[in-house]
Amino acid sequence: MRKEDCFYLGKIVRKHSFKGEVVIKLDTDEPEMYQEMESVFVNLGNNLIPFFIENSLLQKGNQLRVRFENIDSEEDAEAILKAGIYLPLDLLPKLTGKKFYFHEIIDFQVEDEKYGNIGTITGVNDTTAQPLFEVAFGSAQMLIPMLDEFIIKVDRENKIMHLKTPEGLVDMYR
User: What 3-state DSSP class applies to 146?
Assistant: First the structure.
């Protein structure tokens, strides 16, 4: 399985017992959706390796205690500690309306209510307090706050993000 065909679900953050159990911190708003998984892909040495789950228990909100097949000791668990956990993209629930996954809007055209087409979404910067659309605007990169009140419509069929940018934002990049 290739990383491009998967989404990041979380990370193995600690060992739980001397029998090889580990705790995965899930990076999701709905951790309960992932408590009955049969398998996951573990990122080891830049390769996604399938691991089969014997049992799991959701605890403390977004922490999933997992017992993997063939991970039977603290030493085995130590070898996978800090590894990223991935699942195939087709397991993501489909979103509708103005909700979207960051990866799905890459290469969408941006249609502004006032200015028309203002560029192409090249990425999402989620390292700031407020996530930002990164939009290729000519030779510049425009940063647009990802706020619900700016998003008019997500047209998945035509790959267009319809926005109402705040007054003066587009003019700053002209």
Answer: coil
If you write DSSP's letter for every residue of 71-125 in order, what string do you get? --SHHHHHHHTT-EEEEEGGGSPPP-TT---GGGGTT-EEEETTTEEEEEEEEEE
Q: Are 124 and 131 in contact (CB under 8 A)?
A: yes
Q: How far apart, in whole angstroms, are the C-alpha atoms of residue 1 and residue 126? A: 26
pLDDT of residue 1: 84
Q: pLDDT at position 65, please?
A: 96
Which residue ranges form the domains of the chain, and what is each CATH number? 3-91 (2.40.30.60), 102-173 (2.30.30.240)
Residue among 87, 147, 134, 86 nearest 107 (CA): 134
pTM: 0.71
